[in-house]
Amino acid sequence: MTLNDLKNNIPDFAKDVKLNFSSLIINSEYDEELVYGCAYASSLAIGDNNITSVFEEECRNRFGRGFIKSVKATVVLMALNNVWYKFRDSMTTTEMKMAPQKMSVNIMANHAGLDKIFFESLSLCVSAINGCSFCVKVHSDLLLENEKTKEYVFNIGRIASVISSLSKAFSLK
Q1: Cα–Cα distance measured from residue 64 to residue 5, given in angstroms and rounded to the nearest whole number
Q2: Nearest to 79 by CA among 113, 142, 136, 127
Q3: Residue in 38, 59, 125, 132 annotated catalytic
Q4: pLDDT tens digits for range 121-137
Q5: Are 23 and 162 in contact (CB under 8 A)?
Q6: Active-site annotation holds for 38
């Protein structure tokens, strides 16, 4: 299956998903590494094997096997972080809300083999999918502090939203 096959198989009741998939993914004006990397990371975080297989093939062809490994490493690390920080933030006292993670996150030291800004972009995307508002804030702030625009940050959220809604549309088909 290809990207166009994905688009063409979107059910009629999800016309907006099809339009957004075309404009934000297939015909995006953003860097294709960001677009396809975020789409791939989102599909992995959601766990939609059909969408994942299409984006994995696209990413492998465009960016290589090392890219695939790095995106997967980022998704797994963010799954750990997102659960921990959502859990910690739900605690009732300030002291408990500040508890240290005390888990290995060594992969963050080298940004999973990715450029730091790209790693933060993927981390933001996965955190949005996983619903961790603490991590969304942290990664957004880091991107903004590193001269990325608000529109850049919002586009990451849009890509995550489109992949999430695409998965939902296919599950309701």
Answers
A1: 22
A2: 127
A3: 132
A4: 999 999 999 999 999 99
A5: no
A6: no
